Each structure stands twice: as C-alpha cells, then as structure tokens.
C-alpha cells in the first residue's frame, strides 16, 4: 500500500515500518489490561491513550524512517466486531488464523468483549488467550469517520495486508427505526456509503455485508409461507427501483436494502472487487464457552427474542408473544428461522474465504445468500425449549401484532449449501443449552449445578 503522507515519490511506494513505528505498535497492542480488575474510569483513560497513540503512529510519514519489514501478514477488517454477531465472527476468524482489525466505537458493546473473545478462544482449545489478544486490534472509532478510518488503516496497512472487510456495524432495532428513521439512514446507509468509498481508495477489494431477512418484508405476506429464496428480492440499486414494494418495509429493512445496493455499486466499480451479501435470519444462542453473549449497551432497544426470554426466566416475568394467530400452523405464534450464532459466524467467514482465496471466477462477483436453517419453529416452541433447558416453566401472554411483524419468516438455504457448502451444524436444542449456560439460567433457579 502506498503511503499517502510521503511527499517524496521515490519513498512513497517502498516505505516500510521503522523501529520507532514498531515500538509504537507494540505499545498499542501489548499494553493490554487482560485479567485485571480495573475501574471503568481507568479503562476509559486507557482507551483514550490507545486511540491517541494510534493517531500519533499513523500520522508519521513513513519516508522519515528506514525500512525493516518487507512482509505483511493477512488481516481482516471487521466493523461492529465487538457486538453480538461480530464477537462470534472474530472468534471464528481467530480459529482460522487471521489477524483482525476491529472497528467498533462501543456504542452498543463493551471494550472487555476483546478479553472475552480471547477467553472463548482459549476455552475452545484452539490456542492461548495471549495469542488471541495479540491477533486482535481494536480501533475505537466510528466506521463512518473516514478521516480516522484512513489514518488507522494506512497505519495498520504497513504491517498487514487487509484481505477483506466484514461490515457488521449498524443500528439494528426494528422498533427504534420506526421511531427514529433518520438515525437508521445515517448509521446504516450514509456512513456505509462513505465507508465503502474509503475501502475502495485503500485498495480493499472484498466486502462481506450483513443484511437481514427483514428485506423480504417487501413481499406480499402469502409469499412468505414457503421458505424464501434470495432471488425473490433482488439487490436494488436505488429506492426508485424498489418502487411500490417499499410499503411492507420498516426503516431498518429499507436501510438494509440500500446497504445491499451500495455493496453492488462497490463491486461494479472495479473488476477485481467481490462482495457477499448475507441475509441473516434470526441469530440466537452463544458460543458454548459462555464467554460471549448478546450484551447490548443500549438497554432502550428491546433486544432479540432470546433477550426477552432471558428476562422472563430471570425475573419470573410473563413472556409476551406478539402476533399470536398470525403463524397459522401449530400453536399459531409467529414462525421464525433461528440459527445458532456460531453457525452464522462460520458462514460469514466462509463467504470471506470464498472471495479471498478462490476468487469468483464466474461472472457474478456479488453473491447474495440467506444464512438460514431452511426450517423454522414458532416463538412459543422456542420459549418452551428454553424452559426445558433452564427448568423454568415460562408463563406466556398472547399479545396483538406489532408494526412490521410478519407471520412466517423462514429462509431457503439451498443456494448457500450448493455454492459455499454451508449448512447449520447446531440444533435448536444446542442453541438453548449454550444460551442457558452463558446466562447462567440453570444456576439461577438453584436446582442445577
Ligand atoms: N442480531 C440479529 O438478530 C440480526 C439479524 C439480522 C441482521 N443483523 C445484522 O447483523 C449485524 C450485527 O448485528 P448484532 O446483533 O451483532 O448487533 P450489535 O448491536 O450487537 O453489534 C453492532 C456493533 O456495531 C457497533 N457499531 C454500531 N454503529 C457503529 C458505528 N457507526 N461505528 C462503529 N461501531 C458501530 C456497535 O457498538 C456494536 O458493537 C448488524 O448489521 C445487524 O443489522 C443482526
């Protein structure tokens, strides 16, 4: 990668890290707070110092130094890497031997997730905690702040070849998006446009995007009774193309449709670029180690269905099932396609590797896949299964449909199985077991452990 701060054209192409840069790099990466019980005030100060150090490091023109290391190891950029899906994706990438650059400004996650990913890595038996920590670099910036992003990536680009970007950072609450659509446009669309432009100018060619099954909300409800195939909703390049289908979508769903279109444009602009859009259905469960959880900072957002079940089990509260009667089969509650989050993470890593190592030789450089199980269970059945695992009979109250709720949402996974060889490996029972273990739900009741 060229150094854009070098004014001398002869050094611009050949600049390599110097001893001083490497010292700074080690300062940033090795002064970790692992395992210590440190008050949050000091932790925040540490983060500030770290981000200042990154700024200093990346603002030094490398033509000032002599070169020391001509080789650069492969690294993957993960935005939103400390969130629920992101932390599992980071764990999966570590298991596959990657160095990770995590862009996450912690608006909906906590900095100790880095340590938790390290603990999960060690528990999984893939390697030591220390190795995991050394291979993760947290860059606490807003992914839409292109100046900070450029500075950080140019700096890290001297040590690593960034082989691809997995873009997960987003605001994700359907309910909140109905109240505050502007926030969703800004965080999920405007920033993404700037982010992709920055990636293009940095020469990063492979982009993996986490879209959502909510994009199928634009279909007539009767279509959704069968497993949904990807081509039912193609990638739209503009809202105009979407036309009359916009009606069934929430602002969150629209932001995901627009995000898919942005990835398509990114890929079209250069023949060497590839993109994979994953439409995530319902990620649930946790890594079996129990170290990684869905732990949103923003408690105002209701969280996913498992968060709500967890609260009912912990507080012995009634669980509210929305839209009962919509589902139309079995117990008539809504049918959803629940997939273990570790399977989702594995699928995302497989998508990245398909871009990076095999390269898409076929004409289609943008792929769209459902990350779905192909089957579905009702929300009430899920509640019952968590109840069995936690040994708590959760009481259920039937409530009316919420805006944006659809009766059945199940994805067809034939395409991803055929092209990437991905199928979910973990059952819904494994989901409930790992979930109850991570949240200590059995212990809470005092009749287990
Ligand atoms: N969890 C689900 O049920 C689900 C379902 C379908 C799709 N998705 C998509 O998957 C992705 C990840 O979801 P998740 O459940 O892990 O969400 P999450 O909120 O747990 O994680 C998102 C992470 O991104 C970070 N982030 C958000 N905006 C940022 C910004 N501007 N700059 C830097 N960091 C930022 C947050 O701090 C958080 O750590 C999202 O794109 C979401 O839309 C999630």
Describe the overall structure.
GO terms for molecular function: UDP-glucose 4-epimerase activity. One of its GO terms (cellular component) is cytosol. InterPro entries: Epimerase_deHydtase (IPR001509), NAD(P)-bd_dom_sf (IPR036291). It comes from Orbilia blumenaviensis. The chain is built from 17 helices and 14 strands. The chain is of the alpha/beta class and about 450 residues long. The protein has a single domain, classed as NAD(P)-binding Rossmann-like Domain (Rossmann fold, 3-Layer(aba) Sandwich). It starts with 8 loop residues before the first helix and ends with a helix. Residues about 1-15, about 30-35, about 60-70 and about 445-449 have low confidence and may be disordered. Bound molecules: nicotinamide-adenine-dinucleotide. Nicotinamide-adenine-dinucleotide binds next to helix 4, helix 9, strand 5 and strand 7.
Write a concise synopsis of the structure shown.
The chain has about 450 residues and is of the alpha/beta class. The chain has 17 helices and 14 strands. The strands form 4 sheets. The chain has a 7-stranded parallel sheet, sandwiched between helices. Strands 12-9-14 form a 3-stranded mixed sheet. Strands 7-10 form a two-stranded parallel ribbon.
Secondary structure topology:
Blueprint: H1 9-12, H2 19-30, H3 40-59, E1 73-79, H4 84-95, E2 99-103, H5 113-123, H6 129-134, E3 136-139, H7 146-157, E4 160-167, H8 174-179, H9 181-201, E5 206-212, H10 239-242, H11 251-268, E6 274-280, E7 282-284, H12 305-315, E8 319-322, E9 335-336, E10 338-340, H13 341-358, E11 366-371, E12 377-378, H14 379-390, E13 396-399, E14 408-409, H15 414-420, H16 428-438, H17 441-445
Parallel strand pairs: 1-2, 1-4, 2-3, 4-5, 5-6, 6-11, 7-10, 8-13, 9-14
Antiparallel strand pairs: 9-12
Helix pairs in contact: 2-3, 3-7, 4-5, 4-13, 9-11, 14-16
Bound molecules: nicotinamide-adenine-dinucleotide.
């Amino acid at each position: 990668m060229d150094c854009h701060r070098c004014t001398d054209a002869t050094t611009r192409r050949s600049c390599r890290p110097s001893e001083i840069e490497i010292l700074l790099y080690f300062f940033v990466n090795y002064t970790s707070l692992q395992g210590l019980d440190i008050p949050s005030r000091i932790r925040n100060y540490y983060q500030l110092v770290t981000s200042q150090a990154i700024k200093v490091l990346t603002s030094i023109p490398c033509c000032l130094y002599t070169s020391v290391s001509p080789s650069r190891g492969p690294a993957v950029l993960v935005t939103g890497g400390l969130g629920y899906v992101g932390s599992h994706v980071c764990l999966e990438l570590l298991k596959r031997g990657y160095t990770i650059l995590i862009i996450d400004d912690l608006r909906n996650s906590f900095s100790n997730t880095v340590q938790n990913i390290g603990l999960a890595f060690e528990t999984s038996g893939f390697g030591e905690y220390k190795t995991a920590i050394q291979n993760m670099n947290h860059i606490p910036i807003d992914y839409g702040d292109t100046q900070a992003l450029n500075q950080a990536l140019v700096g890290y680009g001297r040590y690593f070849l960034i082989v691809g970007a997995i873009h997960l950072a987003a605001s994700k609450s359907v309910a909140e998006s109905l109240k505050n659509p502007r926030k969703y446009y800004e965080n999920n669309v405007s920033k993404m446009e700037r982010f992709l432009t920055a990636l293009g100018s940095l020469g990063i060619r492979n982009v993996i995007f986490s879209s959502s099954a909510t994009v199928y909300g634009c279909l007539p409800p009767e279509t959704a009774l069968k497993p949904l195939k990807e081509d039912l909703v193609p990638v739209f390049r503009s809202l105009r193309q979407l036309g009359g289908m916009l009606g069934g979508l929430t602002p969150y769903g629209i932001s995901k449709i627009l995000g898919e279109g942005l990835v398509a444009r990114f890929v079209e602009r250069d023949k060497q670029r590839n993109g994979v859009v994953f439409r995530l259905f319902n990620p649930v469960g946790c890594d079996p180690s129990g170290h990684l959880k869905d732990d949103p900072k923003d408690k105002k957002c209701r969280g996913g269905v498992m968060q709500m079940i967890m609260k009912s089990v912990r507080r012995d509260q009634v669980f509210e099932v929305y839209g009962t009667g919509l589902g139309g089969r079995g117990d008539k509650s809504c049918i959803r396609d629940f997939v273990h989050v570790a399977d989702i993470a594995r699928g995302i890593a497989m998508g990245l590797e398909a871009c990076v190592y095999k390269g898409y030789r076929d004409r289609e450089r943008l792929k769209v896949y459902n990350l779905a199980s192909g089957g579905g269970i009702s929300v009430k059945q899920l509640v019952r299964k968590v109840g069995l695992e936690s040994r708590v009979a959760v009481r259920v109250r039937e409530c009316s449909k919420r805006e944006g709720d659809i009766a059945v949402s199940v994805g067809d996974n034939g395409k991803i199985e055929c092209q990437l060889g991905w199928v979910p490996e973990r059952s819904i029972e494994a989901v409930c077991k790992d979930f109850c273990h991570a949240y200590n739900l059995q212990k809470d009741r005092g009749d287990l452990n």
